[in-house]
Specification:
This protein is an alpha/beta fold. The protein has three domains: 250 residues, HUPs (Rossmann fold), CATH 3.40.50; 148 residues, Orthogonal Bundle (Isoleucyl-tRNA Synthetase, Domain 1), CATH 1.10.730.10; 51 residues, no CATH class. Helix content is 47%, strand content 14%. It has 16 helices and 15 strands. A four-stranded parallel beta sheet has the order 4-3-9-10, with helices on both faces. Strand 14 and strand 15 form a beta hairpin. The longest helix is centred in the C-terminal third of the chain and has 25 residues. The chain is elongated. Bound molecules: adenosine monophosphate and zinc ion. The site of adenosine monophosphate has 18 residues, from helix 1 and strand 9.
Length: 481
């Protein structure tokens, strides 16, 4: 089976085919760094992480970009303080320079991301570092008749110049016209036009532009950064469901307006994480953060499992019962990993495709789920059948090693044991054995300096060597056995 993904643009599941065989260019809309990201935001980022891991495990060479929005993301029309820059609001709230606000929340984002076992994207561009690219893109849009400058120096995208506007969200121009509020902004040619550049000498973060000092619109940031880092065409673009309109609709209008080519082949959107049946959001104040849950005794690995368990195209309801259950599941997986390491007793696993029958069928089930539009719950059935069957059969040696290898492969995608620190320990065993062998070889060759260096390396890994007459054994420093 090959990977199929549900494309929000066509509203269909489609076989995934990257532009360039074997290579995937992926852009994920990242956090606005005006506050700490909550676990709802992380549902969207975790989806991107699992997708990347599955693509990599399927043999693709993935380049992943996740931006950091540190200017220009304004409050929506239906929120209090509508139209204000979120960074400026945070700056006023915390009595801190907006640049400091950005630094503070970017650091927290990376900290939470690491805790949740989300791989760092290959690039995490900050919007404020790509202002020149944004200005260049706006100039192209003006030159091509897709944008216009008004008296105040603001630049707007001319929605009527792009007939496909509305295709992603399903909003037709007529719908949008009827739905548009009575506009207070008389500068716009059409109430649906959106800002590419806001000229504002009072804005706390501002740059020179051909239209006056000001700042870019949020939508143009992602169009410019994705082009700068991935080129004019992307294989995959992701975001939360609220990004579909207006953010991604506007990105398409900008990128396709500027380049004249299809911007994104596959659009993927994560449905919201809810709390008690309602939206979890910074604005509503009913949010939980990764470290908060961790302080309450729920390990980040459990939060990770809970967030990735449901299908990304279905709303997920957060409950503490669910989190407690996930915590137990993580413990069960850890126990299984340890027991299987013991049962394998250093035996080598067979290559994929040649492993014990029940291991192969569990692996197939896992892949079947992942290939079907990242249906993680079906994939987890595969994982749990591996546990069940292995426990039932109680294999040892090579068969147990097969089960362990399959567990490793699955967790390379799910990242749950890895986040719990479990596979690192398992990996460490292999690493320690390799280093001990290398040290033995160095001693044979009377290369004492090298042998000592390897001992130091092992000490740094927390491993103590015990030279006995039957050879070398080792233990974790501080462990009793
Ligand atoms: P923001 O920091 O507001 O720019 O949001 C960052 C990402 O999180 C975007 O892709 C949003 O669509 C997504 N997001 C925001 N709230 C939620 C939620 N409750 N559940 C899932 N994703 C969300
Ligand atoms: Zn974006």
């Amino acid at each position: 089976m090959a990977l199929v993904l549900h494309n929000s643009l066509t509203r269909k599941k489609e076989p995934f085919q990257p532009l360039q065989p074997g290579k995937v260019r992926m852009y994920n809309c990242g956090p606005t760094v005006y506050g700490q990201a909550h676990i709802g935001n992380f549902r969207a980022f975790l989806f991107a992480d699992v997708l990347r891991r599955w693509l990599e495990s399927s043999g693709y060479d993935v380049t992943q970009v996740m931006n950091l929005t540190d200017v220009g993301h304004l409050r929506e029309d239906d929120e209090a303080d509508a139209g204000a820059d979120r960074m400026e609001l945070a700056s006023a709230r915390e009595q801190l320079d907006p640049w400091k606000i950005a630094e503070k929340y970017i650091a927290l984002f990376f900290q939470d991301q690491r805790a949740l076992g989300i791989k760092r994207a290959h690039h995490h561009p900050r919007a404020t570092e790509y202002i020149a690219e944004m200005i260049a893109m706006i100039e192209v849009l003006i030159a091509k008749g897709h944008a216009y400058v008004v008296d105040t120096g603001d630049v707007y995208y001319d929605v009527q110049s792009f007939p496909a506007y509305g295709q992603l969200s399903g909003n037709t121009l007529e719908d949008l016209e009827v739905g548009a509020r009575i506009e207070v902004n008389a500068d716009k040619r059409d109430p649906r036009d959106f800002a590419l550049w806001k000229t504002d000498a009072k804005h706390l973060m501002q740059w020179d532009s051909p239209w006056g000092r000001g700042f870019p619109g949020w939508h143009v940031e992602c169009s410019a950064m994705s082009e700068a880092l991935l080129g004019e065409q992307l294989d995959i673009h992701t975001g939360g469901e609220d990004n579909i309109f207006p953010h991604h609709e506007c990105e398409i209008a900008q990128s396709e307006g500027a380049h004249g080519t299809t911007f994104v082949r596959t659009w993927l959107h994560t449905r919201f994480l809810q709390v008690d049946g309602g939206k979890m959001s910074k604005t509503l104040g009913n949010l939980y953060t990764v470290d908060e849950l961790s302080e309450q005794g729920y390990p980040p690995a459990a939060t990770r499992l809970l967030l990735l368990k449901g299908h990304y195209r279905q709303v997920l309801n957060f409950t503490f019962e669910g989190l407690a259950e996930a915590t137990q599941t993580v413990a069960k997986l850890q126990r299984f990993a340890r027991e299987t390491v013991e049962a394998a007793d250093g035996a080598a696993a067979r290559p994929r495709g040649e492993r014990a029958g029940w291991v192969e069928s569990a692996t197939r089930k896992f892949a079947e789920g992942m290939d079907d539009d990242l249906n993680v719950s079906v994939a987890l059935d595969g994982l749990f059948s591996l546990l069940r069957e292995t426990n039932r059969r109680g294999p040892t040696g090579a068969e147990a090693a097969d089960a362990l290898a399959a567990l490793h492969d699955m967790d390379a995608v799910l990242g749950v044991l890895e986040t719990a620190g479990e596979l690192r320990e398992v990996d460490l065993d292999a690493e320690v054995e390799a280093l001990i062998t290398a040290r033995g070889a160095a001693r044979e060759a009377r290369d004492w300096a090298r042998a000592d260096a390897i001992r130091d390396e092992l000490t740094a890994l927390g491993i103590e060597l015990l030279d006995g007459k039957d050879g070398v054994s080792w233990r974790r420093i501080g462990a009793s056995t």
